[in-house]
Every structure is written in structure tokens, then in C-alpha cells.
Known about the structure:
Layout: E1 11-16, H1 20-23, H2 28-31, H3 37-40, H4 42-56, E2 59-65, H5 79-84, E3 111-115, H6 126-132, E4 137-143, H7 145-158, E5 162-171, H8 175-185, E6 190-192, H9 194-203
Parallel strand pairs: 1-2, 1-4, 2-3, 4-5, 5-6
Helix pairs in contact: 4-9, 7-8
Amino acid sequence: MAGPISALDRTALLIVDLQNDFIHPDGAYARGGAASPEAQALPERLKPLVEAMRAGGGLVAATQFTLVPGRGGEPLISPHLKQMRPFLKRGDFLPGSWGQQVVDTLQPVDVAVEKIAYSAFYQTRLEWLLRKLGIDHLVVGGIVTNGGVASTVRDAHVRDIDVTVLEDGCAAPTPAMHAEAIAGLKPVARIASIAAVLGEVAAL
């Protein structure tokens, strides 16, 4: 189980899916009526920790959910996502597009990793990058607590990477789903507040 942050050069803040198409008022989810106020509040809440990590020499990393274009440029959307979000269309979460990018509030990030499923470790270069950069502790925030966050945290755990989950730095479709997901992660990760982690960073 992860303890307090002990070395910033071995720590990365991993921002999960806080992208324009998910949370910006002009993004795909807002257009489809699915933007979450709880998710939209996260960038400003996380910004002080992002800045503290940068100033102290920690790594700021981010995942970018991506809809890979297939034949004729049509996005390859998994059936469950298409059922939940039928408004998704060509150009949404497109590699290199504005919508795929991390929101400006959290920029610049040191490392960005495209992902195609819930976990940031599934068929991505994230683990390779963390090993190469000497990172053995992830501090995780973003969306959604019971989806991309939970899957990524569990996959980090089985790779012997310590994880601190920011309880007030994540959001889910409902407060109840968020609380249930956080409770479910307690056996595999340390749960902490943004303020607590800011204090640890400041003390180093």
C-alpha cells in the first residue's frame, strides 16, 4: 500500500481524461447533453497540485481518451460506448484534435498517453514510460472514478506501482457511484485529499 509521497522525482500526477471533448462547454459531451458539472469542476481543483508538482520536479502526466478513425475516417467506437453515448460522431476525440487535448487549465503536461479503453495501461506505452522515467508512485485524479480511474489504479496495483487516489480530485456520474468506487479502491490504493498531497509536496 502506498504511503505519503517521499520523492518527487519518482512521483507522477496522472490526470485521467480531463479533455476538451469531455468537459469543455464546446466539447462533444456538452453538445450531447452529457457534460458533468462535477467533472467540469476538477481542473480548477487540481490546478494547484499540478503547479506544485511542476515546481518541485514531479512529473505531470495525462491520459487522452481517443476514438481511432477507421475506414473512411469513421471512429471506431466500442458497442457499449456507442449505446451510452449515441451522439459521438466523426471528429470527436480524434487524434491530434482540439477535443482530444487536455483542457488548457492543466497544460502543459509533461507526458500524454492516448488510450482506447478504460485503463490507461491497456495497449498503451504508459508502463514503459513510467519505468523509463523512474516513476514508482502515481497520484491519480480525473474521470470517471468508477471507470477510467478505477481501471487504471487497479492495473497499476498489479504492476507494483504505488497509487494515491485523490478522493476530491475525481468525479463519477453520481456522488453515490463516486463514493462506491473510492471505497472499492481502498484495498489497492491510498485515498487522500488534494490538500493532503499538496502538504506532502510542500514538505519535500
